[in-house]
């Protein structure tokens, strides 16, 4: 008798169906797994044998053949422990094998029969929807329940999974997530913009960056506050929408970073400058998401930008433009979302003090030029806001200027108002932020006054702006206008956008 059960595998961010079949034959007791299994799956037979016995069941003394179809796709991971164990128990007549046709099971078994959490539960639930009942580890139940219409049951052990199958269709309770409670949770940030003294221009740029999703470069001497400002940008970005929560949680789930929680707030990723291209862009075999995908709907912060390897910096160009990254391997291509706010900081020279009022620079003109050339023109052209962050004035540092630094909560209110305008403007267009506007969207949604259009044309001629830079100035001006609650882009908006666009390199 052949026993069948459905499961799934994951390659990159894509989920594919796997049919598991079990048959027994005469011969010495043993287990053979066929269908291009990796080492983790080949070793699973020992985990499954111990889990079944320690759960109080018997393991067959026949020769078992386990087939994973389709046989031409390599299967990887520990998803298949639970479905194989259920199929083995059904083969022994512990319950009707036909019941397994109503379920899709995934889960890794420990030797005592308990279930361990898996990667990619949200992606799996999204692929199954309501077609079958998804049986998975209890710790993955919350993220899987995010998917609308998914029939999800979380179990803690093999014994509990057997009881669920036996009870079908009576007495089954599917996991339910009250999505309204997601917005009742509040994150208490340990960082706040009120800690940043002075630097009004850089803080204004950070506000525009958060409001419209614009890329942001800060250049200045050490200790001027570049890193402080960058790390506080997530505190002024509004919390994620339900759609963004699902998108972001899915990527973190595939990467195995969730640990039972959902991603409710914009993530910030800050890799070290020694990181490899694969760790930042994504890749490997099998492909896994990199830092740019883990920063999806959040912030990617690269501190000391010129210290990163040249191939890493240049590999950012396509994701910044397209909002995704394609990783090709023999036979398949994995696509990971990568729409993030790119924030970076750097010193103006190798010693860091070129242009500083506090300390003299000892770098030669050649070394300064060589240092600056580490940032290519094409990458710089993709950065909307470019700000020189000068040394902090002593009066700002001591608080003698009489100014009170705004808190993140105060700035976030203005950012939220600007983003609400963008959501209303782009409703149904497939984009959410001004920085995501395409050429046709710019013409439709970014109306300039005649004088503002004249200013922009003169700037294009005077500063030799590229077509991309021209569009980015308009996008930035559109965000500045939104912060001012203006439907039309006026002279002041376009002038401020041009001021942030004029490269500091």
Measured between the Cα atoms of the first and last residue, the distance is 72 Å
Helix content: 25-40%
Look up the CATH topology of the domain at 3-167.
Answer: Ribosomal Protein S5, domain 2
Q: Evaluate the radius of gyration.
A: 28 Å
Query: In what order do the strands lie side by side in the largest sheet?
Result: 11-14-17-10-18
CATH architecture of the domain at 3-167: 2-Layer Sandwich
Average pLDDT confidence is 90
Strand content: 15-25%
What's the CATH first level of the domain at 3-167?
Alpha Beta
Record field, number of beta strands: 18
Unreliably modeled segments: none
- Structural class of the helices, strands and pairings? alpha/beta
Number of helices: 20
Query: Which of globular, elongated, flat, extended, rod-shaped describes the shape?
Result: elongated
Biggest sheet layout: 5 strands, parallel
Structure description:
This protein has a domain at 3-167: Ribosomal Protein S5, domain 2. 37% of the residues lie in helices and 17% in strands. It has helices at residues 39-54, 81-91, 121-128, 141-144, 158-167, 200-212, 226-232, 242-254, 277-281, 291-294, 310-314, 317-322, 365-372, 377-380, 394-398, 408-425, 439-445, 450-463, 467-483, 491-501, and strands spanning 3-11, 14-25, 30-34, 63-69, 103-105, 108-109, 115-116, 133-137, 151-155, 216-219, 268-269, 282-283, 288-289, 299-302, 324-329, 332-337, 341-346, 385-388. The strands form 6 sheets. Strands 11-14-17-10-18 form a 5-stranded parallel sheet. The protein has a 4-stranded mixed sheet with strand order 1-2-4-3. The longest helix has 18 residues, at 408-425. The radius of gyration is 28 Å and the shape is elongated. The protein starts with a strand and ends with a helix.
